[in-house]
Amino acid sequence: MSNKILAIAIQTKVCLICGKQHKDDSAILIDTRLLPKEIAETREAEMSKPSAYGDCKECKAYKEKGIVLIGFDESKSDFTLKPSGVGLYRTGQYIVVTEEGYKQFPFSQEHIDAGLKHRCMFIPEQFALELIKNQHG
Ligand SMILES: [Zn+2]
User: What residues are neighbours of ligand 1 (ion), with CB under 5 Å?
Assistant: First the structure.
């Protein structure tokens, strides 16, 4: 009598905007080998580890409302890591601005265009803090 089962897990993704791990709109992963229960459980734990990148639900919703600005520290970031954004050191600021507001920022046209296209932009922590201060002040 066989006591073997299939290892099944929901894929974990990492949101490149906010950096959190999530399972929003994730694929279901199935190891098609029949495995003894204990081995299948180990395999499921492995399969549950982050294995893809993709926007989380919250960031997706904010991107529909405006441009998402994420504060980061350039000196602590690794720009060589792929996909781009994965090595950026996020400093905790998360700001959503309207397209019109975003176009007023003192960025190069290239950065403005990239932000409008991707609906998000990493900005220096100091600039993010100033934005937040002016918003409330
Ligand atoms: Zn996110």
Answer: 15, 17-18, 56, 59
